[in-house]
Amino acid sequence: MTDTRAVERSTVLRVATDPTADRETAYETARSTADAVPVVRTGPTGIDAVEPLVLATVDGRTAFHPDPDRSTVADVVAALEDGDLLPDDATAVVEHDPETRSLPAPERGPLSVGRRDVLGPCGWVNPLVPEDYDLVSTDRDAGGVADAGLLGRGRGDAAANEDVGETWATVRETDGDPIVVVNANDADDRQRVDRTLLAAAPIAVLDGLASIAEHVGAEDAVLFVDETDPDLHRHLTAAIDAAADVLPVVPQLVAGPDEYRAGAPTAALEALEGNDRIEPRRQPPSPAVHGLYGRPTAIHSVRTVLQVRRLLTDETDGASTADETGRDPGTRLFTVTGDVASPATVELGPEDALGAAREAVDLEGSFKMACVGGVLGGLTESLDVPATADALTAADLGTEGAIELLNDQRCAVATAGERARFAAAENSGRCVPGREGTKQLTELLRAVYDDSLESDAIRELGRVMSRTSNCRIGARAPRPVLTAMDAFEPEFRAHTDGRCPSGTCTENL
């Protein structure tokens, strides 16, 4: 028996998996086996290692069966038909409110890591059924959290690490027809947070978008995604169609180029306008003043939109998740990737250290370092850093939502060099610090293999680039290099003597 709704059912079998991936064996087996029990395919949980995850629920008790074989699925369905669970075959059995709209996390295992506030619907609700969501935009707009001090999250957000309420105020005060853009076009495989949220809870994203649009007075909205993901496009189109009669503002889905630079906020606007050359705009004016086609534009990431929605549904107005300064309520989501068996998406509160995210994955080899903040994040030996914007910035780590765990087979010099070359290839070329500075940075790192470590020159170049580059790529390109030098200076000096301590460098950069 198949059904559409997953929430508010006393007995139901959920199969949590990415609906855009070709991993439906468990769902097909359950659907063909069940007679009287509803079988609902929900979205990904964020933990790749446990999926497909079969969740059997009876009267407020849910049994977790990660990646089961066909016979196990059939046994779970048979037991559920009799009103029973199979606790001996489950990795966990969790008691919860029968009407919960959030996945009840077990006490142990990768799903227990961090919080499930924004991630709550992921793996638990039907991604395409509005009734499975507690919609907020139908009753209230984002004005209720405009003064909360929420900071934008992610590389694609024009208000990244800035107060989104101030952005909305500018949009509201600027002449012209406002528009809201959700920028979900990120070509960096390290960044899986936004895609996970779109696959698992697309109607929640549309709901948060609509609440922002209502607040700034926008009748138009755009959801901007990568053109190379047609399965996700079909999934999002189905979600938009399902919610079109419910939400006050419904976005247009637009696909953009699969280029790293196109993920930057103003470059995304250039792509949306159909310009051949994708490059960031000079600011000021900000997109809030002169954005898409010159209109005042609020351009946010998926995770920012869902933080807004979460705060609107939180009776404490986020006070329990504000940082130590009392601002930036909410949580932070990270993709944990790198030298791991399977990547994971975790949600950490301000009281959590980044190191907690390691519990969600199996590291292959011994831990050596992490790159925090995406391809141009900071390299560090320690993850004892709180998951807040201020703490990440103070530690010279990125806030873009990626924790890349790297094992002892990695070379710090080669890792820094790879990222410098990436910046040299991917920058827009619009400004001299970005265009020429990234080339010079790469050459200075190549010189390390030729017995020359010009530390002062590298640091001065990094200082100039970070302060004067027009684009974020140029400004952030020095970060992996400088943080690697700070943490692994002996390794850099060893390379000038022709020796790679990790034994991985066989040729020059």
Automatic annotation (TrEMBL):
Domain NADH-ubiquinone oxidoreductase 51kDa subunit iron-sulphur binding: 413-458
Region (Disordered): 272-293
Family of the protein in this entry: Belongs to the complex I 51 kDa subunit family.
Organism domain of life: Archaea
Protein name (database record): Respiratory-chain NADH dehydrogenase domain 51 kDa subunit
Xref: InterPro entries: Nuo51_FMN-bd, Nuo51_FMN-bd_sf, Nuop51_4Fe4S-bd, Nuop51_4Fe4S-bd_sf
The keyword tRNA-binding is annotated on this UniProt entry: no
Pfam families reported in the protein's UniProt record: Complex1_51K, NADH_4Fe-4S
GO molecular function: 4 iron, 4 sulfur cluster binding; metal ion binding
UniProt-listed Gene3D superfamilies: 3.10.20.600, NADH-ubiquinone oxidoreductase 51kDa subunit, NADH-ubiquinone oxidoreductase 51kDa subunit, iron-sulphur binding domain
Keywords, comma-separated and alphabetical: 4Fe-4S, Iron, Iron-sulfur, Metal-binding
Organism: Haloterrigena salina JCM 13891
